[in-house]
Amino acid sequence: MRQTQESHNKLLKEIERAGMHVRYKKSDNKAGVIGVSWSPSGSTIPLKLNLSELGQKLLPEVPGAYRIGSGVAHNMPWMIADHIRTIPGQPGVEVEFNPLTVAAAADVVLNANRLVIDAVARFYGKDPRPALHASLIRQAAVDRAADEAFTALRGLNGAR
């Protein structure tokens, strides 16, 4: 609990250092954060996000984007722990990753990458299509590798 409170306090200091002010449900600062503002008397920017809706809006071509991202973000420590083991009598550890887990993580990163490319290019008045095309080529390579890994893990030898 102490470590959690220390992390919370550190985050609050970073927010304040950025020039923002945290807004709470009640004035005693103990009832929960509802948003942030750029000045003590400024309007509050709410922090309640519906990530499922946001994922559907930003990535309509990836209907399960939130589910995939959530699974990677929340399950990764356990997925990694399941694939790390010590070797009796030897220093170090042996690591064995599930390629489908790696592909899911890459999928989340590549989708986020395309959102950033599009936003930055449009902000500067540039055409995002060339960079988006390169990202889609990477996505296709990850998809092929995931498909091959799935086939190998299932022992299907290419059959569908």
Number of strands: 5
Number of domains: 2
Number of helices, counting only DSSP H or I runs of 4 residues or more: 5
In angstroms, what is the radius of gyration? Answer: 21 Å
Report helical residue fraction: 55-70%
N-to-C CA distance: 50 Å
Strand order, largest beta sheet: 1-2-3
Q: Main β-sheet: number of strands, strand sense, barrel status? A: 3 strands, antiparallel
Strand fraction: 5-15%
Mean pLDDT: 77
Topology as H/E string?
HEEEHHEEHH
Morphology call = extended
Uncertain parts: none
Question: What structural class do the secondary elements suggest?
Answer: mainly alpha
What's the SSE blueprint?
Blueprint: H1 2-17, E1 21-24, E2 33-37, E3 45-46, H2 51-58, H3 65-82, E4 84-86, E5 93-95, H4 99-123, H5 129-154
Antiparallel strand pairs: 1-2, 2-3, 4-5
Helix pairs in contact: 3-4, 4-5
